Structure formats: structure tokens, C-alpha cells
Amino acid sequence: MSDEEDLIGGGDLSSDEGSNSGNAAASRLRSFVERVERIEVVQKALAEDKKEVYAEAKGAGFDTKALRKIVSERKANADDLAEFESILDLYRHALGMI
Amino acid sequence: MSDEEDLIGGGDLSSDEGSNSGNAAASRLRSFVERVERIEVVQKALAEDKKEVYAEAKGAGFDTKALRKIVSERKANADDLAEFESILDLYRHALGMI
Amino acid sequence: MSDEEDLIGGGDLSSDEGSNSGNAAASRLRSFVERVERIEVVQKALAEDKKEVYAEAKGAGFDTKALRKIVSERKANADDLAEFESILDLYRHALGMI
Amino acid sequence: MSDEEDLIGGGDLSSDEGSNSGNAAASRLRSFVERVERIEVVQKALAEDKKEVYAEAKGAGFDTKALRKIVSERKANADDLAEFESILDLYRHALGMI
DNA sequence: CCCGGCGTTAATGCAC
DNA sequence: GTGCATTAACGCCGGG
Fold it and tell me: Is D66's Cβ below 8 Å from some Cβ in C?
């Protein structure tokens, strides 16, 4: 079993097991983990931005619950439009007509 | 700290740590776990029943995807009716009108 | 709108209600849909029961998150769990986490 | 229906469009909603990026479930994790699982 | 300041 | 084996 396969099969693995630069699989693993973590940093920042917008709206006297509802309904409407074209066929299928 | 509190605070606990019948907290823990598990047995059975209904419908020539869509829409319609009365007020709130 | 007509929330499902086959299909469809819905009523009740058990356990001082993990561990196959843990250790080593 | 009119999918939001205050409120509302939606567009893109990273890792032979757990472990506070594990062990002992 | 409710998101199981 | 539908977990938010 190669080093590459070790990460899956359960063999021993470390980032610096006496070798000079660690093995390739560990390096790739680290790369994947760090890419995910970098994305999550940005996600966290965006979540805070959104919270800030809602807080600002609340400060301006709007009902945040209602605001959230509107946003979600606009999203739902967009989704509905995208799928509306297939609904009639779907119902015909439901009746075994096609 | 009593045995009762041990389950929370991190003290040592076992179902028969030398005593004759185990302690009360362990007994209650077991009770909760088993109640959950009994419920989950029934849930699993119901999920299989539902699968069976869909399989039967499919055998009768119906499109199961369409069928599921219909069921979910009926559910959504029921929910919509339940919440529809509050939507207008919600929007008025959104506009800061009330 | 009567119950008969309220199959999908508006209008008749069958587009050719004068024919026998169309009505028969609609009738069978209705039967399947209602069977599913009856099952889902019970499923909903069971979900609430489970929530109630966890709430009760919480009221008794147990950590519900830990409780849920315990339940899931009892479900999981011991061998699978051990294998998964070995993969985790492998990754942790590769990242220098241990 | 123009973009201007399509605030919530049908009809004007403002019930008194002749007044200044109603229009102003609707305008501010629109602004908040659009700011939120712009953020959500980016959030959606980031979620897809993350999925892509995991898919790529899976393609490279890594166990994505383990990968996700690693990421979450790196996020979690070590002390909290240890405390939670001790609670788990407590419960496991109480149930005779270990 | 804690609590329960809710909305979102990840995980599991299923059908194809 | 891949995509999807359901289900459970998580974190945020508003109220008491």
C-alpha cells in the first residue's frame, strides 16, 4: 500500500515522520482542509454582514421577522417560476395520463 | 455532589458500581434512551409503510415523483392557509405601517 | 369547495371527468395520497413525542446533545465506528493535530 | 411587471402610494431586501465552492465525512470538546456501553 | 441572561 | 454509484 493509499486504508501517517517534507497525501489533505477553512472565514463574514443589514433595518423601524419572510418568499417565488413549467405534466403523470 | 448530579458534572458513574441495583440517575438515563429508541422503531416502521404505499402506487402506473409532489403541495397549501391571515399584517410591519 | 374537489387545492384533477378511466385514476390517486397523509400524521406525532422525551430529559438535568449522540452510537455498528475513528486519527496525525 | 413593481411578486407593497411616507418606507424596504439578497447570492456561491472542494477531496480518495469532522474539530475549543467527551463517557458507562 | 422556536445546513438513506 | 428526498443537527433570533 502506497502512502497515497495510507490515508484511506488506515495505515500510519504523519506530517513529518522523520522524512524531510512530509508525504504528498498529508499535504493534499492539509490543502483541502485549508481551502474549506478559507471559504468558511468568508461565509462567517457574510453572515455578519447580513445580520448587520437586518439590525440596521430594525433600527429603521422595520419588523425583521417580516423582512426575513419577504426575502424568503421572493426566493420561493423565483424557485416556483423555475419549476412551474413542469407542473402540468407532473399532474398528468400523477393521473397516469401520460 | 450527589449521584444525581454526577451525570451532569462529570463525576464517575456506572450502572452497577458495587451497589446492588445501580443508581437512580443511570436508571433514568436508560429510561430516556429506551423511550427514544422505542419511538424510533415505530418511526422506522412508518417510513417503510410509506415507501410501500408509493411502491404500490408505482405498480398501479402512477408517477411516484408526481405523487410526492402532490402530497407536499397539499401540505404546503394547508400551511399557507394557516399562515395567510398573518401575512398582510406582516407586510404592513415590513413597511413600518403598524 | 368540497372535500371531493379539493384534491390538489384547486379544480378537478381529472381533465376528462366524463370518462370512467379518468375518474377511476383520480379515485385511486386520492386513495394513495390519503394513505400517505395518514401515515404522515402519525409520523409528525412521533416526532413530537421524541422532542418531548428529550425535553423531559433536559428538564431532569441531562445533556440532550450527549443523549442524542448516545442514541446514535447505540444504533451504529461497533465495527464501522472503530474503522471511522481510525480514519479520523489518521487525518489528525497527518495534520499534526495529535 | 417591471422590476420596480416586483417587490413581493404581486401588487405594490405600499398601500398608500400617493403619500410620501409610504413610498419612502417602501423604498427603504426595497433597499434592505436587495442588500440581503446580494449577500445571499455570494453565500450561495461560497456554499457551492465548499461542496466542490469536498467533491474534489472525495475524488482524490479522501473520506468526506471524516474530513468534515476534522474541520469541525479544528473549529471547536479543545476544553469544550474534552468536557463533552467526558459527559459522553459518563453516559456510556451508565448504560454499560463500555 | 437564558430559553424555546425557527430557519438553515449537513448527513443519511433511497431510488434510479 | 450518483443524485435526490427525507431527516436530524446546528446556530441565530426574539421573548420572558
Answer: yes
Q: What is the pTM of this model?
A: 0.81
Tens of pLDDT, residue by residue over A20-52, are: 445 899 999 999 999 999 999 999 999 999 999
User: CA B9 – C1' E1 distance (Å)?
Assistant: 22
8 Å CB contact between D66 and A8: no
Instruction: State pLDDT tens for residues A59-70.
Output: 998 889 989 988
Cell of B65: 415523483
Could you state, in order of their start, the residue ranges of all structural domains in chain D?
Answer: 1-62, 63-98
Give chain E positions with protein CB within 7 A.
4, 7-12, 14-16
Residue A25 near residue C94, CB atoms below 8 Å: yes
What is the largest distance, in Å, between two alpha-carbon atoms of chain C? 74
Q: Which of B60, B70, B94 is opposite residue A67, by nearest beta carbon?
A: B94
Rounded distance in angstroms from the CA atom of residue B3 to the C1' atom of nucleotide F6: 40
